[in-house]
Amino acid sequence: MSYGRKGLAMMNRDNSEQLYIAHSGIFENQRLQGLPLVIALSHPQDAGGTAGHLGEVLLHELNNIPLVEFDADRLHDYRARRPRVTFKRDHYTDPVLPELKLYAVEDRLGKPFLLLTGAEPDLLWQRFTASVVELAQRLDTSVVLLISGFPMPVPHTRPLPVTAHGSRKDLTRGISAWKPEAIVQGSVSSLIEIALDEAGIGTAGFAVNVPQYLSESELPQTALVAMEHLSMAAKLSLPSDRLREMSENVQLQINEQASANPEIQMMISRLEASYDANAGDDGYVGIPLSQRAAGVVPSRDEIGAEIEAYLAQMNNGDQD
User: Fold this and answer.
1) Between the CA atoms of 274, 277, 279 and 281, what dihedral angle is there, to the nearest 10 degrees?
2) Distance CA 88, CA 90 (A)
3) H-type alpha helices, 115-240
4) Is 25 helix (H, G, I), strand (E, B) or coil?
5) Half-sphere exposure of 247 (CA within 13 A, CB side)
6) How far lies 229's CA from each of 75, 188, 200, 219, in Å?
C-alpha cells in the first residue's frame, strides 16, 4: 500500500488555527482524490461503543496508513477524559493517549477509502469542523459517511433499527421510515454533516439504535450493523467475520444474564411487544439489507402504505 508517504509536514505552520499536520504530497496524490470518507469518532455518549469499535476493527483488520494527524493536545480535555496508564510494580508505563487521525484504508479487495477515526474532540468544535470540511474539499471526497450510535427503547432480541440521515437520499432512502422531528444534543459528527451539506459535499449517516439498557456497554453487534450499512453505501468489502463471532458470544452472555433476572425479562418483554407492534413483517420499519442488496426496493406507493399502516397502529394504541 503506497500513497507517497514522505514524513510529516506541518500545514500553514504560522496559522494559529491549524489543528492538524499532514503527510507531504497527499493533496497532490491522485490515488487519494475522489474517495469516500468514513467518519467514526468515539466519545462517552457513543452508545454501545458503536463508532469507536468500528474504527478500531477497520484499522486492525485492513491495510492502512495515516495521512493526517490532529493536535490532540489542543482538542482533548485531559481532566474530563483522563488517559490510562499502567502502574507496573514500581513505575508507570504504557500511556494510552488520545489520537485522532485520517487514514487511507484498503478494503479486502484492495479498494481504497478514507477513514477519520479516534477520540471526538472536547474543544474547538467549530475549528475542527472547518478543518474536516477543508480536508474533504482538498481531497475531493465522493461522499462522507458518518457512523454513530444512540440509546433507544428497543430490545436486544430484535434486529437493531438504524436511523439514516444526510443529503445523499439515494444512500439513505428506505432504511428508516420513521421520520421524527426533535431537538437533540449535538455532536461533532452532526456539526460536520451540516457543514459538509452547506459546502455541497454529499453525506449519508447511519445511527444505530442501541438498546437503552445496554448503551453504556461495548456491543460488537452495533458495530456490525454499522459496518453492514457502510459496506452497502460505499460498496466496500469489509471484514465482518470477527465482529459477527463476537456479537454471537455477547448476545449469549446478555441472554444468560437476562434470563436470571425476572424484572429484566419483564422489561425486555415489554420492549419486544412495543417493537413488534410498531414494526413491519420484516421485523423493523425499513427495508432489510438483504432486499436492498438484491435491489428489491418498494415503490413510493408501497412505502406510503406501510407508513399509513404504521401510523394507524400508533393511533389504535393511543385509543386503547
Assistant:
1) 140
2) 6
3) 125-138, 169-172, 188-198, 220-234
4) coil
5) 21
6) 29, 21, 23, 16
Please indicate, yes or no, whether the overall pTM of this predicted structure exceeds 0.90: no
- Whether residue 176 is predicted with pLDDT greater than 90 in this model: the reply is no
Between CA 27 and CA 167 the distance in angstroms is 25
Nearest CA to 247 out of 204, 282, 214 is that of 214
Q: How many CB atoms lie within 10 A of CB 212?
A: 16
**Nearest partner of 178 among 307, 290, 298, 287, judged by Cα:** 307
**DSSP-derived 3-state class of residue 286:** coil
Looking at residue 234, its pLDDT comes to 96
pLDDT digits (tens, 9 = 90+) for 247-289: 999 999 999 999 999 999 999 999 999 998 877 544 455 555 5
* DSSP, res 208: E
Minimal CA–CA distance to 241: which of 75, 60, 21, 48? 60
Q: How many degrees, rounded to 5, is the angle at CA 293 between CA 291 and CA 294?
A: 65
Please report how the helices 241-259 and 262-277 are oriented relative to each other, as an axis angle in degrees rounded to 10: 120
Three-state SS for 13? coil
